[in-house]
UniProtKB/TrEMBL annotation:
One Pfam family hit: Ank_2
Organism field: Diplogelasinospora grovesii
Stated name of the protein: Ankyrin repeat-containing domain protein
Signal sequence region: none
The organism's place on the tree of life at top rank: Eukaryota
This protein's UniProt keywords: ANK repeat, Repeat
Length: 152
């Protein structure tokens, strides 16, 4: 992992800013193809996500391991503020990863009620199916997330 990726993953906004000012490659990727933006989003570092987007980070970049976007990572890990920011900046709400899961299905599968609610309010397709034919409801129910099941 590059210094920029490490700083983004750890939420070190000042360090990320300095590295970018000194010419760090904003789209540098780790061995799995994850960018600084996806690391910051996955770990819930809203300020770093905002900085990277302001500096032109590719919002729809997918990692090569599983094809997840920054939005999918943030949703899967329950980072509501980051999900909201990414949506406000134009992230594709229906982007699918390599197994066909959307941000909504990831949030539902992991029981993140507030993120599920936000995604639904923003128009996420409730009936979207992954490559196995499973919907967000199916994932939430299968993982025992009663509150999310009620939302869906």
């Amino acid at each position: 992992r590059t210094t920029l990726l490490h700083a983004a993953a750890e939420g070190q906004e000042a360090v990320v800013k300095l590295l970018l000012e000194r010419g760090a490659e904003i789209e540098a990727k780790d061995k799995d193809g994850q960018t600084a933006l996806s690391w910051a989003a996955a770990n819930g570092h809203e300020a770093v996500v905002k900085l990277l987007l302001e500096r032109g980070a590719e919002i729809e970049a997918k990692n090569k391991k599983d094809g997840q976007t920054a939005l999918s990572w943030a949703a899967a890990n329950g980072h509501e503020a980051v999900v909201k920011l990414l949506l406000e900046r134009g992230a594709e709400i229906e982007a699918k990863d390599n197994i066909g899961q959307t941000a909504l299905s990831w949030a539902a599968a992991n029981g993140h009620e507030a993120v599920v609610k936000l995604l639904l309010e923003r128009g996420a397709e409730i009936e979207a199916k992954d490559n196995s034919g499973r919907t967000a409801l199916s994932w939430a129910a299968g993982n025992g997330h009663e509150a999310v099941v009620k939302l869906l």
